[in-house]
Specification:
Length: 461
């Protein structure tokens, strides 16, 4: 069979990164091998995101750029998958008729048969059928882990929360969890292939196992992952504050591989806005969860998502958010300007915040948080951090890059062994701190590796 090339462009969250890898696995039996060069590909797949308006615009501008390529090479197969595909379906091919395949989030497992149909019959196909949503896809196949130390593993998909601004429950469906045995087997295989850190992902990982009756909830799953030999670090994302149980908080004390970092989206610091968003918790509840986490693990890094300019957000509400941001002292924040999404309840809310005001609020929070992040990073200068080496730094190829337990990027020079160190945890003395990264030097005799455990940070004498 002729060897063919597939190029995948991934937009959006880690769920999509994971799904793109599944696509590669699914297409391997059809003799498709991955290529990073778009112009060498026989098949180009775009894995899309529709969470915010801006993400969706990106999809259409990317598709626009491919019109010419498709005209010059009519045999090129162009597929669009992911959340925009699920949401737009036939509208997508109307707007971009050069697309060959539209495959929604539930059609991922059917991708090989869709590609085969296009190869054989040269017809255009749209598959947004929600069948296949009852069990998350589990693809057996080659592991693409070469030269990597970290990997994402999807443990659940979908969401039952229905926050009023969010498309996820519509484009990804309701919560479904993978079987624990499947997850553990996948992680073991990754570890055999050199992976040292896994991030367990899902729209709301805390809800893992609550509905499916696999007899294992999220803290129990973490415990089983913690027992996997050769694995050094565990991370997870994303957590809904409402489902953050005391048992899960306790896991940060008990599990030696669980890295001291949690991404806990708060979205707003105003109780009124939280109610409008249907978040199901109050500001006070959130602050109590933060206090509990810090009590159990004082060095824990906490990051969050905030939406500014949600419909109905008044000046006092925004001020409450700024106040919460100051009070919590997040390690970093992802800020978003609210945008209406198709069919979500908030799209019909009145009292829309003007774009200019959203921009002002965004800048204000960015500045407040920027100061906090930098201060927190600077406090690490002089400490020695356990850095899991991930590879060469993108900005300075003579440096290696990795992450500290608290998930901060640390770059350092290490001429001697270079890439041979990928996957090792090295003690790195931090000498400089910036807004988005730390700079350091490996310390110790021969830059010795840390033993198996993943403690927090240690202060240098
Ligand atoms: N507008 C702006 N931000 C949004 N998010 C989700 N939906 C919207 C929307 N309609 C943000 C939330 C979520 C993150 C992934 O994206 O903050 O946590
Ligand atoms: Fe969307 Fe997260 Fe709310 Fe679920 S919990 S509806 S994924 S914002």
């Amino acid at each position: 069979m002729k060897q063919k090339r597939v190029h995948i462009v991934t937009m959006g969250c880690q769920m999509n990164v994971y799904d793109s890898e599944q696509m590669l696995r699914l297409l391997a039996p059809l003799n498709y091998r991955p290529t990073s060069q778009q112009d060498k590909a026989d098949l180009i797949l775009l894995n899309t995101c529709s969470i915010r308006e801006k993400a969706e615009h990106k999809v259409y501008s990317f598709l626009g750029r491919l019109v010419r390529m498709k005209r010059l090479r009519p045999d090129l197969i162009l597929g669009v998958g992911g959340c925009v595909a699920q949401q737009e379906g036939y509208r997508l091919v109307k707007r971009a008729p050069h697309i060959d395949i539209v495959f929604g989030t539930f059609a991922l497992g059917r991708l090989p048969s869709l590609v085969r149909q296009v190869e054989d019959q040269k017809k255009q196909i749209v598959d947004v059928d929600p069948r296949g949503a009852s069990e998350p896809l589990c693809v057996k196949g080659p592991v693409f882990a070469a030269g990597r130390a970290t990997a994402f593993v999807t443990i659940m998909q979908g969401c039952d929360h229905f926050c009023t601004y969010c498309v996820v429950p519509y484009v990804r469906g309701r919560e479904v969890s993978r079987r624990p045995e499947e997850i553990l087997e996948e992680i073991r295989l990754l570890v055999e292939n050199g992976i040292r850190e896994v991030t367990l992902i899902g729209q709301n990982v805390n809800a893992y196992g609550q509905k499916n009756g696999h007899g294992c909830d999220f803290p129990a799953l973490l415990e089983r992952v913690n027992d996997i030999e050769g694995l050094r670090r565990i991370r997870f994302t994303t957590s809904h504050p409402k489902d953050l149980s005391d048992r899960l908080i306790e896991a940060f004390r008990r599990l030696d591989k669980l890295a001291p970092h949690i991404h806990l989206p708060v979205q707003s610091g105003s109780d009124r806005v939280l109610r409008l968003m249907n978040r199901g918790y109050s500001r006070d509840y959130y602050l109590k969860k933060v206090a509990k986490l810090r009590n159990v693990r004082p060095d824990i890094a906490i990051t969050s998502d905030i939406i500014v300019g949600f419909s109905g957000e008044e000046k006092v509400d925004f001020e409450a958010t700024v106040d919460l941001v100051r009070q919590v002292g997040f390690d970093s924040l992802f800020l978003f300007k609210y945008s209406d999404r198709p069919n979500v309840p908030a799209a019909k809310f009145s009292n829309k915040v003007p774009e200019a005001l959203k921009g002002e609020r965004f800048s204000t929070l960015l500045e407040v948080q920027g100061g906090v992040t930098l201060k927190k990073n600077k406090a690490l200068v002089g400490t020695t951090q356990e850095v899991l080496v991930e590879g060469l730094s993108k900005k300075s190829p003579n440096q290696l890059t990795g992450r500290t337990p608290c998930n901060k990027i640390a770059n350092f020079t290490d001429g001697a062994l270079g890439m041979a160190r990928v996957g090792r945890i090295l003690p790195v003395r931090i000498v400089e701190a910036f807004s988005h990264s730390l700079l350091g030097h490996p310390v110790g005799k021969g830059h010795g590796e840390y033993p198996g455990k993943n403690g927090g940070m240690s202060h240098a004498a």
